[in-house]
Amino acid sequence: MSVHTAVDLGxxxxxxxxxxAAPGVLDLTExxxxxxxxxxxxxxxxxxxxxxxxxxxxxxxxxxxxxPDASTVAVDTWGVDYGLLAADGTLLGTPRHYRDARTEGxxxxxxxxxxxxxxxxxxxxxxxxxxxxxxxxxxxRLLDLADRLLLLPDLFGFWLAGxxxxxxxxxxxxxxxxxxxxxxxxxxxxxxxxxxGLLPAVHDPGTVLGGLRxxxxxxxxxxxxxxxxxxxxxxxxxxxxxxxxxxxRFAYIACGxxxxxxxxxxxxxxxxxxxxxxxxxxxxxxxxxxxxxxVMGLWVLQQCVAEWDADLPGLLDAAADVPPGGPVxxxxxxxxxxxxxxxxxxxxxxxxxxxxxPATRAEVVRCVLDSLADAFARSVAxxxxxxxxxxxxxxxxGGGARNRLLCQLTATACGLPVVAGPxxxxxxxxxxxxxxxxxxxxxxxETLRALVRQTADLTTFEPQHRPLNTGVGVS
Length: 475
Known about the structure:
Elements (H helix, E strand, L loop, with lengths): L3 E6 L3 E10 L2 E11 L3 E3 L2 E3 L2 H18 L5 E5 L5 E4 L20 H8 L2 H8 L8 H8 L2 H4 L2 E4 H10 L4 E2 H4 L14 H7 L9 E2 L4 E4 L2 H7 L6 E3 L5 H7 L8 E6 L3 E7 L6 H5 L3 E4 L5 E7 L3 H10 L3 H9 L21 H11 L8 H27 L5 E5 L6 H11 L3 E3 L4 H14 L6 H11 L3 E3 L14
Helix pairs in contact: 4-8, 10-17, 13-15, 15-16
């Protein structure tokens, strides 16, 4: 049975994992984990791509010690961010992080030329101020020096195997991909100011891209037969592969630093109502559409815990004892986007709403989690209303599946059972697509999900009382 290596880079941490997948078998072992996050420099925010590459190298050495004959490797990351290369393949500068403020006001200028609804019907994306399209307009003269633009997972793929390309699921977060064809839209690329030829060809998940570079093999100790495979390189696309759904009547919440809430469809929803509700149509594995809304996710809680230098389990226990019915905030308020004094921002936002602000840390945590559950439930309800898709269960995957209080609050808010797990859904989805590309597995996404259901540690949370008036729950 082949061994597959998943390099999974999330917004707050990264890990390198080895896994095996075959009929009746799905296992995953972490060999290297490391922190990740935006780096502040002189008022701007950057991604330490070279530092992440060093961590990947460390992880691959650990893989080689365990399984030197590992057959494939694949990379997934968060979306929208990119690196620029010179003609000789050298990285130009340090990639900016999407939380950098340089894109403020850019979208207004774009929409003055191309109405926002028209743009939505071309690329299918919800309005997010940091979409690659807007970042490129803010980039400035560095674009003039560049010979190639690679989104982050493709950049690391280039450093691994020397192949330049753009994997479709991650490319669909850029705002430059035609929602109908799944390939670069000439008009969208022109709108960004990128000259023709800067973007590489798009390829689909499951494509075997080639062998690893000689220097990577020598440094890592991996065998010469190791191949780079394109998976759903947007981390949510890989996570959705590993949703352990029994049938199509499910919604998913991929909950980490971000919360991606939606349903899986066969085609995009491009209506004016969908646009107004700020839903996005991103590509998934096997040509599916991830119809979803980005919600702030665990970011606000993570920032509070870091600010307090506190023990999260203890905070969650205390928050569970806070009576229900407390204040909630809009977790997607732009003031919560940048790093900073998050607990004070929460208190200020509650005060502005006319309610008593949370006084203790436990009350702040409960406010954040109640607010997240409320946002998740409303997003599920909106996805059902706008798509017409029947939903009977919500699958919550990713790191948020460890947060039992959040899972229970979400079940109650939705009025639907929430199945929590797997926690490492992204890495599992990454490995599953690698295994299928290598011939260890056959079949559709449904077949892959049945294997997850058979092997994963899952917990079901039932609604505890009448849900919020979201219109999601079944009577």
